[in-house]
Every structure is written in C-alpha cells, then in structure tokens.
Fold:
Amino acid sequence: MKILSVNAGSSSLKFQMYEMPYEKVLISGVFERIGLKDSFYTLKIDGNKVKKQVNLEDHEKAVEMLSDELINNNIVSSLDEIKAIGHRVVHGGDKYSDSVIIDDDVLKTVEDLSKLAPLHNPANLIGIKAFMKKISKAVSVAIFDTAFHQTIEKEEFLYSTPYEWYEKHQVRKYGFHGTSHKYITSRMKDVLNKEDVNLITCHLGNGASLCAVKNGESKDTTMGFTPNAGLIMGTRSGDIDFTLILHVMDEEEKDLNEVLNDLNKKSGFLGISKISSDSREIEEAYLNNDEKAVLTQKMYVKRIVSYIAKYFVFLKEVDAITFSGGIGENSSLTRKMIIEELQPLGIYLDETLNDKREDEFLISNDSSKVKCYVIKTDEEVMIAKETYRLAK
Ligand code: ADP
Structure:
C-alpha cells in the first residue's frame, strides 16, 4: 500500500512516500519558502537528489507539483494509487490519545486546538486541506505530537496553578515529540525483546525533550503546556522562573511578545553562547575552551542529567536510557558528558562503543546497571506506520 507521510509547516512541506508495510521509501522531499520569494523544492529518489527553483504561492501549488513529480517519476501511475496520507499535527490537546482518521469533526477540533498551538496547528491544517483537495480518494490520518503523552497521570500533568485554569482553559502539561518517543519505545521493545519496557528516552535535537516510559507508556515528559519547557534547546530557554519576564520587560522596555520571542528564538544555546544555535559550533568552541561555549555545554548536560535522575527515581526500574535526535545520535561528546554524570546511579559508558556511528547501538559497558543506547529516530516512518494501521 502506498502511503504518504506529511509534515506541513507555515512555509514548508516535507514528505516521504512509503510502500507499506515494508517501510520502503519510494521518494522523499521538501518544499521550502512556500508563499515567499526564492521558493524551491528538493527531491530524493533512489539516493539521487534534485533541486528545483519554482514559484510556490501556497501549499496547494506545492501539492500539485508533488503530484506531478510522483507521476513523472513513475512512483505512481495515477494519484488513486495513494491509499492514505498521514499528517503530523502538533497539538491534539486532551482529545486525542491516538492517531485518528480525519473527518469534518477532526478538522474542526484541530482548528479549535489552534488556540493552544497558534504557530503549528493552522499550518498543519493548511497542509491537510491541500492534500484532501488534490488527492481526494486517499484516507487522511492525523498523527499528534501530544498523543503519546496522554497516558501521563494527572499528578504529573497538572501545574500547581488555580484548578479552574485547567478546567476552563486547558492549562496543563501536554508534552510534544510524542511520535519520536513512541517510535523509540517501539524500537526498544524489539531491541530488548520485551513488551513492558521502562525507559528514559532522550530526544536531543534543535528542540529537545526527555520522556519517562513505564510499561511502554509515557508517564512524564519535560516539555509542558508548550514546547518551551524543560531542557535547554537550540534557541529556547526551557525551564525558567516566569517572573523574570516582568523584570526584563521593565529593564529592556520590551513588550510581552518581544520577551516571549527572546525566550523562544534567542535563548538556549544561542542565547548563552552568543555563538550559534547549532550544537556542532558550540562543541567546536567548547573543544577550543571558549568560555561561553564551555558554560553552555555544561548547563545543557546538567539540565538533562537532572531530569534523568528525576525519572530514574520516578520509574524505580529502568531498562534503558536512549539517545536520539540530531545531537543524541551524532554527538559522542554530549553523550559522554551526560553518562559520566550518571555514575552515582551505577550507569557507565563504554567509550569505544560510544564512538561508533550506526543507526542503533549500545554505548554502556557490562558493569552498567542500566543499558544505554543510541537509537536513530524516524518520525516519518512512525507516521506511515500509524497511517497504515488505521487505513489498511
Ligand atoms: P530538529 O529538532 O530541528 O529536528 P535535529 O534533530 O535535526 O533537529 O537536530 C539538530 C541538532 O543536531 C543541531 O544542534 C545540530 O548541530 C545537531 N547535529 C546534527 N549533526 C550533528 C553531528 N554530527 N554532531 C553533533 N551535533 C549534530
């Protein structure tokens, strides 16, 4: 069955087409700068990359060009061959604890949830509607970033704010990156040959979150009401004392939105180091003993370690700690610094294994009480699997 996996942003559209259930990628690509000047798209077929400069006035135009490419490259002979399309949707609120086939009710709910994710849900909806119009026979499925975390108990998801904020305004922890944490959990069930896995999954990319997985279910995560909570990220602050916002507004004569923008776009790696939001540049400067880069890297690692320690106590029994995302998969230095801090818990690194470069590998040594693994995440295939499960 041919299935498209789609991730639509406000000015971009990423896609992969899979032959399911074999998880074989037939074509993948990304349309960028939609609605802006200098728009273009790139495609990858059989390892060959193509880039085309085109006018992309809106997402519908991108879907039209994508459809033409599918036919011209003989991926499909007619669009009717595409049986289902899985869409990444950022916010499913507390309505969706699973992926769902999209109908008018779902469209309305996702739209209503835009209040909670004003930057993401509207863009996701534009993508969904553009595909529904052009490839109308395919079943559309929504896969929510929040869904995997709906198994978190109330005592973990509730903030200690007036209870009516939760009842009236849906103020609570939601958590994000659920598709990645779910994928890692499903891989770890295979790797450990065990269904009821207890894990601490570390998704360390430009955005970053940890998840405490108990018996295969998310029971806590570091992101909260929005993705700005928890760990230090590329440009996001993660956890802060909210009252500093008022102080900075006064001192810098900025309005609330400007300060929130600073916390979202100018904090994290970029804000502390003044070098970059890209961890590779921080690492390079760290290795050259740049003072701010050393500080950034240490703060980054400490925050992760403090959450791992918290989840270790929370879970009581941990089968494995996993590292994924651009940093988790590629930065042996960051992994080493984290695991060295975990020695009081009896967790030890094997430095030789840690330097390997593979999709999935063990990095802890034989004496470690908890196994540590690098597991390459694949949110796209998870979207395709969920879509196949609901549409087949
Ligand atoms: P996103 O959250 O945007 O999906 P990614 O998972 O792609 O982010 O992760 C981006 C981060 O991964 C960047 O900070 C980047 O520097 C880092 N990264 C990618 N490759 C490497 C590498 N080889 N070594 C260290 N960090 C890397």
Observations:
- Residues 193-379 form a domain with the Nucleotidyltransferase; domain 5 fold (CATH 3.30.420.40).
- The CA atoms of residues 168 and 194 lie 40 Å apart.
